[in-house]
Amino acid sequence: MPFGNTHNNFKLNYKVEEEYPDLSKHNNHMAKVLTKELYGKLRDKQTPNGFTLDDVIQTGVDNPGHPFIMTVGCVAGDEESYEVFKDLLDPIISDRHNGYKATDKHKTDLNFENLKGGDDLDPAYVLSSRVRTGRSIKGFTLPPHSSRGERRGIEKLSVEALTSLDGEFKGKYYPLKSMTDAEQEQLINDHFLFDKPVSPLLTCAGMARDWPDGRGIWHNDNKTFLVWVNEEDHLRVISMQQGGNMREVFRRFCVGLQKIEAIFKKHNHGFMWNEHLGYILTCPSNLGTGLRGGVHVKLPKLSTHAKFDEILTRLRLQKRGTGGVDTASVGGVFDISNADRLGSSEVSQVQLVVDGVKLMVEMEKKLEKGEAIDSMIPAQK
Amino acid sequence: MASSFTRLISGRNTAALLASLGAGTMAAGFLMSETGPLAADKKTKLYPPSSDFPDLRKHNNCMAAALTPAIYAKLRDKVTPNNWTLDQSIQTGVDNPGHPFIKTVGCVAGDEESYEVFAELFDPVIKDRHNGYDPRTMKHPTDLDSSKITNAVFDENYVLSSRVRTGRSIRGLSLPPACSRAERREVERVVVTALAGLKGDLAGRYYGLGDMTEKEQQQLIDDHFLFDKPVSPLLTCAFMARDWPDARGIWHNNEKTFLIWVNEEDHTRVISMEKGGNMKRVFERFCRGLKQVEHLIQERGWEFMWNERLGYILTCPSNLGTGLRAGVHVRLPKLSQDPRFSKILDNLRLQKRGTGGVDTAATGDTFDISNNDRLGKSEVELVQLLVDGVNHLIECEKKLEKGQDIKVPAPITQFRK
């Protein structure tokens, strides 16, 4: 699934130009890279789990994209996709991740003690702090390809691992298909509940199949550590809290992740990782750390400053609205997070957020006093 | 199957672990572990059908009613000659649990052979949907002789427009849920080449969805001809919107009375329509056009999918047989307010829809009234049934206008014996 490797050999009866998709109106990374020649070279291949080139690119074919926003346009169906289709995925990865080369190595650093500072972001401006990443479980195919049996297997393993946690991580699992109305209401109010994907970027990649079978949300009793099971990745792991103590958020993130990983490893199902691509996730944009560390921060003056976007770029940060990706900011409050995922470690990415947000809050304060900020604008990081 | 796992496992502890976590899935995981990937065929053995059987407890569709774990186990690992699978056929029904009041079909065919390879599922679904029609024992009659139709010119004080539609599939090419881009483009090529051979009142032209100008698009919208990318999850979950708008298009004759959709929910949807109440002419053109198109594709060595068990083969089991929906837009202000309206329609084997088509509400007193049935009765029979029914409805309306009472007609029998 979704479209069946089975049909792939049948397609080979047709010439390359007959099967090659029409990408003339497309603006995504896949469309930029996939020439007819490359399509011809890769179309008879499939991963050991039967994921094919057309499976990889279907979402990019079905979603031509927007002139201003460059989406990735392809997904992996399993760990091996990144190897079997490397001639397509390596250039896309390079494009998306600042020229990352096929020979580059990615550094993983989940030692929270290596983070400097981060516990003193001004809570008058920084309303909340959050770090998220994804993890894929070795031995299973990824959401675009997984069968119901596999998805349930992933859920079962994940629930076992998570419910064995204790202390600050003691919590409970809520399967999507059997939660009560009261539970659902509470999860919505806590901003924890994820819904069936409506974005065609996800649905065209086959990730919403069999919803809500095998999907659920786990969170600790303190509501500061949260895991989504079988949404866009096997696991999405989130650490969050109100206020600006990013250091504490990151500590809990690292500790929780390592506890969970240890349990999976015991069952011979460690996380998918290699030294070139770091953590393997469904979308090539999330390779490496898969980490998005960010804050909701009030920057009404700075956000309207002519150099705001320039500052963000130099700090290697990105802005989003407070509803997350593809939403607009409300009341001058922005979601500011790291732009990079691959080629730098977790610690260094969170460090960029901590340092960058600290600087921007200083700039905001200066602008409030009517002072200029030009001398504060940093060099490109 | 279990024994092959236990051979590889040593130790009581591991066995206990596996047992506690659910034998099928966890055995698979344990074996895969760090030692590398497993081939697809090995995997199907490691995940028994029971681990993959969909949770259909909240579902209300024909597929969910028919699919038992035993049938699933038997069919899960089969493929059609085009390599289409059961899981692909049922995905739309798994993803769309349905509504307590509306029973959808919940499965699609990927190719002609699906109906045979997965007959153990499709036969009960067909029986459920088509009033007990049994493909194992019954034959479907095909009759496109429009001269047999009588009384088919309606009172235009009531009937605003008349329309007949059906679908046709090109034998040898996979259906919209399964087709590759090359196959879809081939369907388009075969059909458009054939249509270019139509002459006289049927002469027309093709508008590819991807290449039409803004002006052409606006005109097609104004004519109510343009179809859009499917948004209904019933269709998108059945993979029918892939690669949109590649190889999709609309052909219509210059008079705008004969229209063909290419590669939407079926290879082709064929529509004959006109304003007013002359259903006789609409059906005559329908039959003539269909026969000519069939002749034109046969000249090039192609044919329509058809067999005597199921009639014309289409993507959705609900459209098997004739695939025919004959209908009118008709004003019935008084009758539609009468509490017996639904029962009358039921007994006449008619259905009502809003004037926007399926799943729309009626505006004012104008309804889309069409035949319920598709399989087990011929085109001529169904159109005559619609004609007689509409005439009866108009008679009822006229009676009610005069303050007279109406009677609910006796129900029409289901199948020709």
Automatic annotation (TrEMBL), chain A:
Segments passing through the bilayer: none
Entry's Gene Ontology molecular function annotations: ATP binding; creatine kinase activity
Recorded GO CC terms: extracellular space
Keywords assigned: ATP-binding, Kinase, Nucleotide-binding, Transferase
Binding site for ATP: 128-132, 191, 236, 292-296, 320-325
Domain Phosphagen kinase C-terminal per the UniProt entry, residue ranges: 125-367
CDD domains per UniProt: creatine_kinase_like (cd00716)
Family under the similarity heading: Belongs to the ATP:guanido phosphotransferase family.
Protein name as it appears in the record: creatine kinase
Species, as recorded: Perca fluviatilis
TrEMBL record, chain B:
Annotated positions binding ATP: 161-165, 224, 269, 325-329, 353-358
Localization per record: Mitochondrion inner membrane
UniProt GO cellular component terms: mitochondrial inner membrane
UniProt-listed SUPFAM superfamilies: Glutamine synthetase/guanido kinase, Guanido kinase N-terminal domain
Ranges for domain Phosphagen kinase C-terminal: 158-400
Gene Ontology molecular-function annotations: ATP binding; creatine kinase activity
EC number annotated for this UniProt entry: 2.7.3.2
InterPro entries xrefs: ATP-guanido_PTrfase, ATP-guanido_PTrfase_AS, ATP-guanido_PTrfase_cat, ATP-guanido_PTrfase_N, ATP-guanido_PTrfase_N_sf, Gln_synth/guanido_kin_cat_dom
Keyword Mitochondrion on entry: yes
Domain Phosphagen kinase N-terminal: 45-131
Alphabetic keyword roster: ATP-binding, Kinase, Membrane, Mitochondrion, Mitochondrion inner membrane, Nucleotide-binding, Transferase, Transit peptide
A UniProt-annotated Pfam family: ATP-gua_Ptrans
GO biological process, one term: phosphocreatine biosynthetic process
Membrane topology: Peripheral membrane protein
Domain of life, per lineage: Eukaryota
Function comment: Reversibly catalyzes the transfer of phosphate between ATP and various phosphogens (e.g. creatine phosphate). Creatine kinase isoenzymes play a central role in energy transduction in tissues with large, fluctuating energy demands, such as skeletal muscle, heart, brain and spermatozoa.
Family label: Belongs to the ATP:guanido phosphotransferase family.
Protein name in UniProt: Creatine kinase S-type, mitochondrial
